[in-house]
Specification:
By secondary structure, the chain is an alpha/beta fold. The protein is 48% helix and 15% strand. Strand 5, helix 13 and strand 6 form a beta-alpha-beta unit.
Length: 384
């Protein structure tokens, strides 16, 4: 339980943000710099309020750092939205483009902010030369080995505390028949829609599910060889709150462990729609918590990795903003609940990352509006 003192601090924190929203404190100006810094120092940044629970993160890119630097002070973890992906850092074989990612890590180091590595192996954002080279299973696995080793050693282990080793290897939505038959892995034959685009590669067709085990084994070896003792290895995917896909993920984890593969955590991509929540609030909350509980029961840590809540509105009505705030509040409540082991050997929620810093381009999904002012969700997640 939080003490009365901390509760009062949070109330003052909300008051400070109300002043921001009203225009008394202005982003980018001297008044904001003088007053908001003082307010945050005394009343708490989001990462300070959650310091006893888990890391609070946001996804961004190197070219957005100057635009978002004031709000980024609220976070103690960042994720690169795209600058660490294979197609960006090695667009041509042995010709590297680390510039954006390096700038992001340098900034994070200067701000004493940790970094989630995202991501090593994905079926999308694969450079054309990889598909041309991976003519059989042996060469495909060798490319995975080489890419993981080069990427992890380049970025090192000082600031990066975990990697999404494999991203989105399961079917979008799992049917009961697929789960029972073991046909759970994404492939072009069963998923023509997602593979009918540029920059994709069917790892499953080339390697079967062996590519997943190989990626984790190689990442584990890199950690061991380079002394990255605190670095965790995650599997990251979306819709993992849905019961059948949750069970498919658990089946995959058990298969990996049966092969002696190290996997430390599950990244639950949280691209959620408000309508999915409002159509059945009790059921949605039940499924979300059941998923967190099921993964942590295996001893896995859980990160909520790409949190946003799509309202379907370009300009929020007061009613919709209230509902969005309520949904954010429920998610954070469950995450706080599982931030400590709920039984011996259980894993924990160790991080919550929003897939953006503030609303922009009519996408009203995040905690701050397009001007950087706090939305109702801030109140819901900071007053408890």
């Amino acid at each position: 339980m939080f003490s009365v003192t901390v509760r009062k601090r949070k109330k003052l924190f909300r008051t400070a943000f109300t002043l921001l929203a009203s225009g008394v404190l202005i982003f980018g100006g001297s008044l904001f710099s003088a007053c908001a810094d003082d307010a945050q120092r005394h009343y708490g940044l989001l990462c300070d309020i959650y310091s006893d629970y888990f890391k609070i993160g946001a996804a961004t890119s190197s070219d957005m750092l100057n635009h978002e630097k004031d709000l980024l002070a609220n976070f103690n973890s960042i994720t690169s939205t795209y600058e660490m992906k294979w197609g960006v850092i090695e667009p041509q074989s042995s010709k590297y483009n680390y510039g954006g990612a390096d700038r992001l890590l340098q900034w994070a180091s200067e701000q004493n902010i940790s970094v989630r590595g995202h991501c090593l192996v994905w079926y999308r954002n694969v450079p054309d030369w990889v598909a041309e080279t991976a003519v059989n299973k042996e060469t495909a696995l060798a490319l995975i080995d080489s890419h993981i080793r080069k990427t992890m050693t380049h970025f090192g282990g000082e600031n990066i505390y975990c990697w999404d080793v494999v991203n989105e290897a399961l079917h979008d939505s799992i049917t009961k028949e697929q789960l029972e038959s073991g046909n759970i892995y994404r492939n072009a034959k069963d998923d023509e829609r997602h593979f009918a685009r540029d920059g994709v590669f069917d790892w499953y067709a080339a390697c079967g599910s062996d590519y997943i085990a190989r990626a984790f084994k190689t990442a584990d070896q890199v950690c061991d060889e380079n002394g990255y003792t605190g670095m965790q290895l995650f599997y990251n995917d979306y819709l993992l709150n849905q019961p059948l896909k949750r069970d498919a993920c658990i089946q995959m984890v058990k298969e990996l462990r049966a092969e002696g593969v190290r996997i430390d955590g599950i990244g639950m991509q949280a691209h959620y729609s408000l309508s999915s929540y409002t159509s059945d609030k009790r059921g949605w909350i039940k499924d979300f918590e059941a998923a967190v509980r099921a993964y942590t029961e295996l001893g896995l840590d859980v990160n909520i990795t790409e949190l946003d809540i799509d309202t379907g509105e370009k300009k929020l009505s007061e009613k919709t903003e209230k509902l969005q705030a309520e949904m954010y509040g429920k998610i954070f409540y469950i995450c706080r609940k599982y931030s400590k082991p709920w039984k011996n050997g259980a894993g924990c929620i160790t991080g919550v990352t929003t897939w953006g810093v503030k609303d922009s381009d009519g996408n009203c999904k995040y905690l701050f509006d397009s001007d950087g002012n706090p939305k109702a969700a801030i109140d819901e997640i900071t007053y408890f």
